[in-house]
Amino acid sequence: MTTSTDRDQQIQKLRELIADIDSGMLTTVDDNGSLHSCPMSTNGQITSDGVLWFFIYGSSHKATEIEHNQQVNVSFVSPDRQRYISVSGTAQLVKDRNKMQEQWKPQLQTWFPKGLDEPDIALLKVTMDKADYWDGQSSFKPQTIS
Amino acid sequence: MTTSTDRDQQIQKLRELIADIDSGMLTTVDDNGSLHSCPMSTNGQITSDGVLWFFIYGSSHKATEIEHNQQVNVSFVSPDRQRYISVSGTAQLVKDRNKMQEQWKPQLQTWFPKGLDEPDIALLKVTMDKADYWDGQSSFKPQTIS
Ligand SMILES: Cc1cc2nc3c(=O)[nH]c(=O)nc-3n(C[C@H](O)[C@H](O)[C@H](O)COP(=O)(O)O)c2cc1C
């Protein structure tokens, strides 16, 4: 059994692993069942309850896919360090202005030139169900957090 | 309309983009619909008809997932160059010894210490249905190959 303290420590470990990785690859499933990935800027953070936050255009193709199928994967890769992380999660669009203010980072301006004044801006909340990570060349089998 | 020559050129472009990326993240869907990724060594190659080959253990969890759901995604990331590639494809296990001999690379020994003498070794053939790539910081919208 995983006690809550174990899980806290594991999420802490995950946070360290992704801390300096700028973008994750978000994989979503479309209505035909095919899988697409796209890069999404992270703020290198995962909350203590296992949530990743992204900014997204509410009317984008990706957002529509997620409304139809909430199961997603976010992978983080740091090839130099042979670090590979898979976060399986459930995604949800959130249009909470306060939360946006809290999560906003200036470097997101590249993707959202109008910043929080962008009318179509939304948050994508990914709640981790399970994570696997491979850290360093020697790790054939992943470490798993669930 | 995409003519076959266009497609040839696009696949050539894709080949250049992934040539020096050692591993891709393979995302598969399990029976509950949740999405998992894991790193897979590539030989940096995609054939002219859009096929990626990987080596896999035939009895692995991943292989079973693929037997149940053939839709997969392989993403390639080179953070230094801001290069992000998504290949949506259909996967299939192939146990053809000649093909294995053709695809084998010595560096795969890390994952398959017995090499081609490993009884459980199999090939995973991913046939590209669609690819998207982002090459360089400025590209918000991907280039698409289908
Ligand atoms: C490094 C990088 C980071 C990105 N970060 C984001 C992001 O945080 N939010 C976002 O909506 N799009 C981001 N994009 C663009 C998306 O990957 C995607 O191309 C865009 O959202 C269009 O998606 P759509 O095809 O679903 O409409 C980023 C692209 C790159 C290359």
TrEMBL record, chains A, B:
Pfam family, one: Pyrid_ox_like
InterPro entries, per database record: Split_barrel_FMN-bd, Stress-Dev_Protein, YdaG_split_barrel_FMN-bd
General stress protein FMN-binding split barrel domain residues: 10-139
SUPFAM superfamilies referenced in this protein's UniProt entry, alphabetically: FMN-binding split barrel
Spans through the membrane: none
UniProt protein name: Pyridoxamine 5'-phosphate oxidase family protein
